[in-house]
From TrEMBL:
UniProtKB keywords: Membrane, Transmembrane, Transmembrane helix
CC annotations in GO: plasma membrane
PANTHER family in UniProt: INTEGRAL MEMBRANE PROTEIN-RELATED, MEMBRANE PROTEIN
Name the UniProt record assigns to this protein: ABC transporter permease
């Protein structure tokens, strides 16, 4: 518990910066909708007929002329990338920062097994991700409430649950990278997020790449799919759970055998 509290305190500034920044961006764009709703209604057909790009952005399923469609595409895009980067960054820095900061000599001489320390660190990542979502999503909810327009709160809740799972999957992959590395790999974490997001867009554009959807957590955490009531492939959720569990187990195995740098 002491380690959990320490990790949360150590990351509190990063948590506040990322959550408030992403939340305020979403909040501001939501409030902007009312002033641009008329223009969006006029160009909705244009956006819906941009060929393959329409599919990539999910505009073949929802319309920007509605608040639901606007949230499912514009807001979900910003929230998805921001939350994914934060989660991946947390995971990839969690273990490796001890070696890079030369604090592993102290931490791993405490009367705790390595796997115990790893589990507390992983739990701290989950708590920080949950706190991020509470703050950022809360600001989005405030914006929707202030607009006082017709909106599907149920779809929003469903989307953010899937987004939370996506963040945990990315954080778990980052955690595995952190166990393998002796230095913070923040750039690699950002690259992982951008790669998986780009892969999601490619799969939606090119039908022949459909099987690659299992490689991108962004595929099941799609605002456009959720708000348009597209049936969710249960295999995607099973895959996400398997990736999370496997990443944690492999991280534990690696750390147990790793020759840590002082």
């Amino acid at each position: 518990m002491i380690l959990l509290i320490h990790e949360i305190k150590e990351n509190r500034k990063s948590l506040l910066i990322w959550s408030v920044t992403v939340g305020l961006i979403c909040y501001g764009c939501i409030l902007l909708y009312k002033s641009v709703a008329g223009q969006l209604a006029e160009v909705a057909d244009l956006y819906a007929n941009m060929g393959e790009m329409t599919k990539a952005l999910g505009l073949d399923k929802v319309s920007l002329a509605t608040l639901d469609g606007y949230y499912a595409t514009e807001i979900a895009l910003m929230f998805g990338l921001g939350s994914g980067m934060f989660a991946a960054m947390l995971g990839v820095n969690s273990l490796s920062k001890e070696e890079e900061g030369h604090t592993s000599e102290f931490l791993y001489t405490l009367p705790y097994q390595r796997k115990t320390i790893l589990l507390w660190k992983y739990l701290s990542v989950l708590v920080l991700i949950l706190a991020f979502n509470v703050i950022a999503t809360g600001l989005s909810l405030l914006g929707i409430w202030q607009l006082a327009m017709t909106f599907s709160y149920q779809s929003m809740f469903h989307y953010h649950l899937l987004s939370l799972l996506m963040q945990i999957e990315l954080a778990s992959l980052g955690f595995l990278i952190s166990a393998l590395s002796s230095k913070k790999q923040t750039g690699l974490a950002m690259g992982l997020v951008l790669l998986t997001y780009s892969l999601d867009m490619m799969v939606r554009i090119v039908p022949d790449l459909d099987k690659l959807k299992y490689l991108s957590p962004y595929y099941y955490a799609s605002g456009a799919d959720v708000f348009s009531q597209v049936d969710l492939d249960i295999l995607l959720l099973i895959k996400a759970g398997a990736v999370i569990l496997a990443s944690l187990l492999f991280s534990m195995m690696i750390l147990e055998k790793k020759d840590l740098k002082a």
